[in-house]
Design goal:
Length: 292
């Protein structure tokens, strides 16, 4: 039997600056069947989750709508018109799906890097893929048109696992070296700033143009201004019954300004919102039964 928990939170555990108190508090969470790699808050209200074994669609409250694909994915992005670009992590293939999860088109990710990692789509429908070699040693950003024809490539980047689009610029976060680099849509350098994350993964942006930087080993999800200023950090540990450990890996913001953050340690999608909302929780047995 599904249980519903309404979590009222008075304070968000975060960094010490008083300005950080303005961040939305913990609103709830829901489980996924295995390690989450990516999260997309779709404009139609659904929430797409890329995991270590499949791509799934949920309601914002955590009700499973269906399985889109049976491969691992760390790259999800909504295109103009509502289609979703989904990267097949191990097989290095990009797929376009309709908003309901029907396949439309696929193409191979080039060059032949080992993993197809992160993806964003600009307002013109151009697709930018961050791919990387094993261990995130080197990375490349590849630009495609809407049909998957390669337009440009920026190779030889220091190992990176974060790609976001804000204010007409691409932002790429290094996973080890503590830098976020900005690039124009033509993949020309446009600036660099320090990344507060110890191990930054799954960079995203919100409606205000701020960057969301999950820090897997730092156990925080930073909110950064597009110029690099640290505005705050999301941290649910010990709040409202949440476990004392988490490892955020990806994030997105929905049209109602709910922040969805993927917690790989607990296999949860964690919600932060200014007004607490209902989110279901399940026992492990109930979760297994839901996927049979």
């Amino acid at each position: 039997m599904r249980r519903t928990a309404l979590i009222a939170v008075l304070a968000l555990v975060c960094l010490t600056s008083p300005a950080f108190a303005d961040l939305p508090p913990l609103a709830g969470w829901f489980p996924v069947p295995t390690y989450p790699y990516a999260v997309l808050a779709h404009s139609d209200g659904s929430v797409w989750i890329g995991t270590a074994g499949s791509v799934l669609r949920y309601t914002p409250e955590g009700t499973l709508l269906g399985t889109v694909a049976g491969f691992a994915s760390a790259g999800l992005a909504e295109a103009p018109g509502g289609d979703v670009i989904v990267l097949d992590y191990w097989n290095r293939v990009a797929h376009r799906y309709s908003s309901s999860g029907s396949p439309i088109h696929s193409w191979p990710i080039t060059p032949a890097q080992r993993e197809g990692g992160r993806v964003v789509v600009d307002p013109d429908g151009n697709i930018y893929v961050l791919c990387f070699t094993a261990g995130f040693v080197t990375s490349a950003i590849v630009k495609y048109d809407a049909m998957g024809n390669q337009l440009a490539i920026l190779p030889g980047l220091t190992g990176s696992d974060g790609l976001a689009l804000s204010g007409g610029l691409l932002f790429c976060s290094e996973i080890y070296a503590g830098q976020v680099h900005a690039y124009t849509p033509a993949l020309e350098p446009a600036g660099t700033f320090a990344n507060p994350a110890i191990f930054g993964t799954g960079l995203a942006c919100d409606a205000a143009g701020n960057l969301i930087q999950p820090d897997y080993y730092g156990h925080l999800a930073y909110l950064l201004g597009a110029g690099g200023a640290t505005l705050g950090a999301f941290d649910p540990r010990g709040v409202g019954g949440y476990p004392s450990q988490w490892s955020p890996v990806a994030a997105d913001e929905s049209s109602d300004h709910t922040y969805f953050i993927a917690d790989q340690y607990n296999w949860n999608i964690v919600l932060f919102r200014s007004a607490a909302v209902s989110a279901p929780t399940m026992s492990w047995g109930e979760l297994k039964a839901a996927y049979r």
